[in-house]
Amino acid sequence: MISGSPGLAERESDPLLHHRVKDFSTQREVFEKITIASAVLDDPLTAFREIDRCLDAAMRYKRPVYLEIPRDMVHAKMVHPHITIEPDIKSHKDALKEAIAEASEMIQAAKKPVILAGVEIHRFKLREQVLKFAEKHQIPIAATLLGKSVISEKHPLYIGVYEGAMGRESVRKYVEESDCVILLGTFMTDINLGIYTAKLDPGRCVYATSEKLRIRHHHFHEVILSDFIKGLGKTTMKVAKRKIEDDLKRTREAFVVVPDKNVTSKRLFQRVDDLLDEEMVVVADVGDCLFGASDLTISQHTEFISPAYYTSMGFAIPAALGVQVARKSLRPPCARGRRSLPDDMSRTLNIITP
């Protein structure tokens, strides 16, 4: 986010200017709390270095950053020539090697392994690597609610969304009975854990995100998530093949209109599920629509978007605009529901409940 602010010269004598909240630093302080990095570009000596620092953080963590420019600094010239230095972020060689070795040993010793994939697999574009690793060893994959559609939900290894007692019982049981849960890019939030009804023993988990890596109760530092997943994929392992029961292999049933039946949440989402095709993206707002949408069948990857961490109301409309910006082939929702569109146009389904 790039924002303007009152000019530096205008701030003398502490005037009450428009767009001033409390102090002249308040705006930056607000955004500082919800971004991974922020800077005020008020000094030509440091401005370019600060821009680089914030953009490096955005690329490293795949999270928003905030840059603020006082309006009388917009045309400021650099004082000295600036050379951008690309950050050389690498995993610690020995830490990475030991982490992969310990994780591999744990996975090979397991009789019921399962992968629990989260939102960072989307953010860091690691889907192909995770899927290749799972297919190589035939390890079933569940997703968190925040990471839903991390792979196509029609993939034979996919078993559903895991969210503790809030999700389907068959998925909960399958994941929690595992003696090796491989959590990749998964944040242990209250929503992902079914409001803390999840029962995952850390002693039986490999937990890898961009922020931390823990295998059982051993913590590894300076190991990059992508390097760890790539390393696991290259390792030769003999992994036990775990059967996926029939009750986990969900098939979409055609919706049958029954005029005399009451309209229920279950019937509503059955109808929505029947509408979905390979050209649609689901954007789910919070509340009933978020939890009800968890069992919708998403055909392609990264085509379910929700605020399943912050759960902020009013997410779906701006998120649908974001979908349009990110992928121009997708269409924003129609106010009166689905309408016929040319076959070469994709659609976005926006779910909002009162």
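Second entry:
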Amino acid sequence: MSDAITIDRRFRGPPESGNGGYVCGRLAAFIDGAAEITLRKPPPLGRPLDAARHDGGVALLDGETVIAEGVAAALDLEVPEAVSPADAAEASSSYPGHQKHIFPHCFVCGPRRGPGDGLRIFPGWVAGRKLVAAPWTPDPSLVGEDGAVRPEFVWASLDCPGAWAMFDEKGFERAVVLGRLAARLLAPVRPDEACVAIGWPLGEEGRKLYAGTALYGDGGALKAFARATWVRIA
């Protein structure tokens, strides 16, 4: 049994492929509870892809090519304490992506995406803490029929902060792409809610980089968290 998914160009990360977090969130919709999505190929834009459900998970297919695979996950992660909106705004003011960005039109963290188009999550290092943070107020265009931000956009918000947490204040020295994202959504996110997205490093092994991310809502309430694997590509 399969369903069609089309990744609109608005939701790109690299110029010609879908933002990893967004694509993971679209595929996670076919799995109950926490999910782990592995990206096998760059998700193509603008054409129907098949989400094929099978025992134990779901695969995203472009013809015979496996683009991504998803399974249920038991995600256990120690999440740092919340960052205040004021501290997140201060950290975001030093976002290195404003000076140098490999994918400046990324749906999540691209500085060339305007308000109401991209998420414009711009993480910078928080003073005195080994993590990056950025404020985020979800645009009303991201809301589903239930009045909450659609899950795929919450997944997207958990994507790029993890990458920026793997680099110092100078930003990317080598290009990285998302290879795997496991996420657990805990509570709905409201449009216009004053959120804070954070990311922190979990280590590295060869070309693989590991990071945690989390999204907090009003009053520091934990809304979602994730564990990501990033892969150096250059």
